What we know:
Elements: H1 4-15, E1 21-26, H2 27-30, H3 51-70, E2 74-79, E3 82-83, H4 95-104, E4 109-112, E5 118-119, E6 122-123, H5 124-136, E7 144-147, E8 153-154, H6 155-166, E9 172-175, H7 191-197, H8 205-218, H9 220-226, H10 235-241
Helix pairs in contact: 1-3, 4-6, 4-8, 6-8, 9-10
Amino acid sequence: VNGLGTLKLLQYSQLARAKRFIYASSGCSIYGSSAPLPLTEEFMSLHLSSPYQITKMLGELYCNFFQHHYELPVVKARFFNSYGPGELPGQYRNVIPNFIYWALRGEPLPITGSGEETRDFTYVGDIVDGLLRAGYFEAAAGQEFNLASGQETRIIDLAQMINAQVGNGAGVVYAERRKWDTKSRLLASVDRARELIGYEPNTPFEAGLKNAVAWFRENWDCIEQAARFGPGVSSAVRGICNK
């Protein structure tokens, strides 16, 4: 999807003379572990940490080609650790829905590493606002933007916040850091998006977490059916949870 799927969408957009093509890129993938913080859009580096990262970078390169060769008005939106209502837990899912799921089950939250690692968690509503602005403002065409909160959160602090909100007394457990987790810190600059399209991440982190926890509580039965820490979440169950 990230490679050939993006290429096909760009081809169809060029043939249809689309007014704007917005590519959902990944700030976690585009910037190498040696990039200075806060991460700015100019510091794109080639690195081979995972197939996912490679395909995300490939998507940006395809966008560059169509922008320069066909003058397709492309925007590359680099998401940072998006979270919020509607995101299911699972083996290959993100840390926040998994932590909420385990906390609601009364289980200790597994921290891979020291817990001092940081991420720039961005609420889904702020991401959506940034995408709408990227599609509306002419200044966005041909640009790449970080869509982030612009704030660092330690993983241990995230775990403690979720346990406190849910009332989970099981605490945390520590596990060996995963091989593909090469970044100890993530923090993005949103100065370019703020200046050119008026992007402003307005959702406080704890408020965003409360919204995500509330969604889990409201949809717990279907989330229990859909949660898979192995391959195979049916699209039918996923659809029920996201009604």
